[in-house]
Amino acid sequence: MAKPSQKVKQSIYLIGNVDQLQILDLNEQEHAYVIDRLAEKGDKILRLNRHPYYLHLVRPEASDKPAFQQAEALRLLGNKTLRMLKAEKEPKVRVQSLDGKLDPIPFTEGVALGAYQFLKYFSDKKKKAHKLKEIAISGITQKEILHLNALVKGTYKARDLVNEPLSHLTATQLAKEAYQAGEQYGFKVEVLNKKKIESLKMGGLLAVNKGSLDPPTFSIMEYHPAEAVNKKPIVLVGKGVVYDTGGLSLKPTAGSMDSMKSDMAGSAAVIGTMIAAAESKLPVHLIGLIPATDNRPGAKAYVPGDVVKMYDGSTVEVLNTDAEGRMLLADALAYAKKYKPQLVIDLATLTGAAAVAIGKYGIVGMGTAGEKAFEKLDEAGKQAYERLARFPFWEEYDELLKSSIADQKNIGGREAGAITAGKFLEKFTDYPWIHLDIAGPAFLDADHGYRIRGGTGVGVRLLFHYLKNMKA
Fold first, then answer.
1. pLDDT tens-digit profile of 31-61?
2. Which of 122, 211, 315, 372 could link 406 by a cystine bridge, Cβ 3.0 to 4.6 Å?
3. Among this protein's residues, is 326 annotated catalytic?
4. Annotated catalytic residue 251
5. Domain span at 420
6. 362: in domain
7. What is the pLDDT of residues 197-232, one digit of tens each?
């Protein structure tokens, strides 16, 4: 996206009322047609053919809803307008708002996010690819352009990673993706191999990896600008299970295992956020941690009944090997203590219980951070329309994780599954911490507005707004 540099053949105008059409210099016939369709018939999107140029007039429905909901309506209109743009097969489009109350940024964001395609494995990908490559925006600042570009790049990268099959994206390859992102966007990356992970005694990560032929990795990313507003770092931890069979607690294939390449969506969100923060030069000290492996029922796979000694020295009785994400996240959360963080946020496709509870419409959140941190994250969630549903975190839930032979069990039973997963992770923290379960919105079976089928990149936009809003 960029400011208009030359005349383009497709232009989009956001209008609040028909009086604003005067600036477009419509002829009498065009004006009558527009009034009929927009004012009288109530169309929201209208195309005028001035061959070889096209005007797209977008008139959002008047609303007294909160500003964040109106912004989301603009994103959805942007995505709907995209269908017309694809049909014209033009590489550029220009967006301009004729109404000071209609922000072109969320509209453009909806166009850009809806335009995402993952065509890598199609033999006719050139034929399937749409032509739209650039969106020019009038009336916004260079900083706003920079932020919007960074946000889209980070989300696209997260989507790409989630959509990659295990045949391409093993734990080793995920670490390479993180490293290459660091080289491209300007943040440091260190990758710990299996030997180093063993020397650190990360028992949770190593236990999950036992059934795999591929080694685990632990990626450490750091973006530290000179003028960071935070004296202590924000640490992001992303679940990196590149494929989850359930291990010996094997998942059924239909409707369950077939989408488990997406079980690393938390790690994808962390990489995407690191990209967005570095690309937009946010003044925030940020660290990203990604423990990664696949979870397979191999010959040496860990089994229900095993007791695992974790990185922090505590012990876990494993009663379900399909509750594997919390095992490797626990090691990463314990490792995060060394940074003395201001706040740690983990993201994970952790439980089906979270998806059942709120579906694809939001993110389940819980944790020990203070009210102010949750309020700020909730505000960012509204800005991105990646809304937060905060679950209770009462101490009574701890009872469900008590083990008769170890410090705790890795599952708590059928009741409150998303919460007991969070309670398990809490034992490995001693700092302000928020757990985000993104199981519902991370991977979709069908398009949902500008959230395209497959990996959605959920979490990137939420965290970007949270970091962007930070003050000294």
1. 999 999 988 898 999 999 888 888 999 999 9
2. 315
3. yes
4. yes
5. 147-468
6. yes
7. 999 999 999 999 999 999 999 999 999 999 999 999
